[in-house]
Amino acid sequence: MTTIIEPSERAPQSAAAPSPFPPIAEYAFISNCHTGALIAPDGAVDWLCIPAYDAPSAFGSLLDRQAGSFRLGPFGISHPTARAYEPGTNVLVSTWKTPTGWVVVRDALTMGPTTGPDTITPHTRPPADEDAEHVLVRTVECLEGEVEVEVVCEPVFDYGRAPASWRLDSDRHSAEATGAGQTIRLVSDVALGIEGERVRGRHVLNAGGRAYCALSWAEGLEAPVDIDDATARIDATVRFWRSWLGRARIPDHRWRDPIQRSALAIKGLTYMPTGATVAALTTSLPETPGGERNWDYRYTWMRDSTFTLQALHFLQLDWEADEFMQFVADVEPTADGSLQIMYGIDGRRDLTESTRDDLSGYAGARPVRIGNGAFDQRQNDVFGSVLDSIYQHTRHAQRLPRRLWPIVQTQAECATKVWRQPDQGIWEARGKPQQYVSSKLMCWVALDRAASIAEIRGDPAQTTAWRAVAEEIRTDVLEHGVKDNVLRQHYDTASLDASTLLAASFGFLPPDDDCLRASVLAIRDELTEDGFVLRYRTDETDDGLSGKEGTFLICSFWLVSALAVIGELQQARDMMERLLRISSPLGLYAEEFDAATGRHLGNFPQAFSHLALIEAAARIVLQERLKEY
User: Fold this and answer.
1) Tell me: the pLDDT tens digits for 502-532?
2) HEC per residue, 574-627
3) What CA–CA distance (Å, rounded) separates 535 from 524?
4) CA-CA distance, 138 to 141, in Å (whole number)?
5) Average pLDDT of the chain, as a whole number
6) CA-closest candidate to residue 509, choices 470, 452, 453, 469
7) Percent of the chain with pLDDT over 70
């Protein structure tokens, strides 16, 4: 057994972060299930795309300190005393101590009763009782003493390309900004003034005093009319999140809080009009500090579908599971009937990648990318992800929706045709196509799950045919993809790849299989840094890119799951505890973790990391319960 050394990540993350960009993990995430915002520790909104996750940013200081921000907080004070979510919500509460007093700020992208058609982001799914108001509401209250607070709003539309043109109303409490074809409205009970391309206000609050500001892109630019209205909208948003979370089954376990926060993060990354889930809120946060491994993750990956369904069904969030499944059913296949590896949150297929070379990038990491050039890659794992998600949904509901059976047929047929062919693999490598083991493994999943669905449907001939192909794939992988009894990255290498951990999660080999056990332990021993898992070693893999990357959080959570599957429950618990200790101060995860510096890297918050957390926790919880009986 490998001795796990306590890593150096316990050093304060802020100490290692390059100035003037805040560490990625210090951002707070809020959402209205149409878009989301990242709020820096100083109270500035540094990232907000309106009206949807994948729209151009209006506030983009996350990627260039000149690309727009929106601050509410004490004048001259940059660091709050405490920040936390109101329990059970995505509403942020920041408490500040100043030399003269104390204030508390509440931030919410507000939710309210559905009143009619949403003309900003029309729904293709049935609308819920409550929906986004398309307003960012911020309130501040002085708890003690007196504090001077400021409002500073400086949008720069179209990813920092179009400075705002402001028009201030005569009462000096409302102003409209236009740019790049967009108009937004700022309202506040603090008197406002225009300073060049920004609007600013300052006001002294005494104990018990309150103030608010709100930014609207709603129909008619509707916004709160006073502090009581603003407070009521935030309170209603608190009720929305708590009511939603109340429908979830959160196990009574010591990991209840991180499971709950992960559920809220995933819901906050769900696009309510279609049921799609974005991989992350952001684009181009670097996987390598200052490097080129910067990608746009504001889209829906079909690969995520199976992990999304696993998490939602474990939490008994069946409505959300069905919404996502219907989104999968809606998307347009390619000419050969296969599904793309990713789609826009509205189902669009064309995600052509471009760069914004005028932006500095987060801490100098360039290029900044809009779109994702991997959308038309060949990745043979997509069939298994889609069919496993349909199988989970069918097994849970005990019926197969009529509109899903054609997808089962086409994806199984596609997997049958292509499983022998090389592809770019699960990690979307931009190097030479290879015979990746994980892609073969997921083709096996596709045929295995298709056979199980056909059996549920009562089609024995199709069941037999698809099971035969699944067994053919398994035999090929075990013959060509195993060296020294360990699953390898692809057929022509002895290198390891964390994606082979999916052999445990998807049941490719039984839990007591020697090869499975050896593969899991090899990754634990040989593909880790300070005990955290790399997806592969960049010096051994032709991924078409330069530079090193951090450990992948999803891979570390996969190792937790795999250890639980092979019976190493205490090791799984220990690693889970270490992963929970390195979450952001607000319980969130980016894509990667740099064990040497303790910094989170990559896009944030990352749905895949939170989905894998829920799966890992669920496997341990279920194993613990089995041991009780």
Assistant:
1) 999 999 999 999 999 999 999 999 999 999 9
2) HHHHHHHHCCCCCCCCCCEEECCCCEEECCCCEHHHHHHHHHHHHHHHHHHHHH
3) 12
4) 10
5) 92
6) 470
7) 96
Mean pLDDT of 299-311: 88
Share of residues in the chain with pLDDT > 90 (%): 78
Say how many C-beta atoms besides its own lie within 10 A of residue 119's C-beta. 8
Task: Evaluate whether 360 touches 344 at the Cβ level (below 8 Å).
Answer: no
> What span, in angstroms and rounded, lies between the C-alpha atoms of 479 and 361?
45
> Residue 342 — φ and ψ, nearest 5°?
-150, 155
For 432, the token pair is 């030479």
DSSP H helices, 17-81, are: none
- Give 570's contacts (C-beta < 8 A, 6+ positions apart): none
d(CA 362, CA 21): 7
Both tokens of residue 36? 């989301």
Cα Rg of the chain, angstroms: 25
Which of 13, 17, 73, 20 lies closest to 45, judged by CA?
73
Are the beta carbons of 623 and 564 closer than 8 angstroms? Answer: yes
Q: 18: pLDDT confidence band, cut at 50, 70 and 90? A: very low
Instruction: State the burial class of residue 221 (Cβ atoms within 10 Å of its Cβ: 0-12, 13-18, 19+).
Output: middle
pLDDT band at 591 (very low <50, low <70, confident <90, very high): very high
DSSP state, residue 296 = B
Closest CA to 157 of 133, 181, 175: 181
Asked, as a colleague might, if the bond just before 127 is cis with ω within 30 of 0, I would say no
Beta-carbon neighbour count of residue 189 at 10 Å?
17
In 388-405, which positions are buried (b, 16+ CB within 10 angstroms) versus exposed (e)?
bbbbbbbeeeeebeeebb
Strands 486-487 and 92-98, by their bridges, are unpaired
Residues contacting residue 417 through CB under 8 Å, at least 6 positions apart: 336
Q: How far apart are CA 229 and CA 226, in angstroms?
A: 5
- Looking at residue 8, its pLDDT comes to 35
d(CA 306, CA 505): 11
What is the rounded CA–CA span in Å between residue 372 and residue 375? 6
Res. 11: pLDDT tops 70: no
Beta bridge partners of residue 187, listed in sequence order: 174, 214
Residue of 44, 33, 54 whose CA lies nearest to 353: 54
Beta carbons within 8 Å of 332's beta carbon, 6+ residues apart: 347, 349
Question: How far is residue 61's CA from residue 68's CA, in Å, rounded to a whole number?
Answer: 5
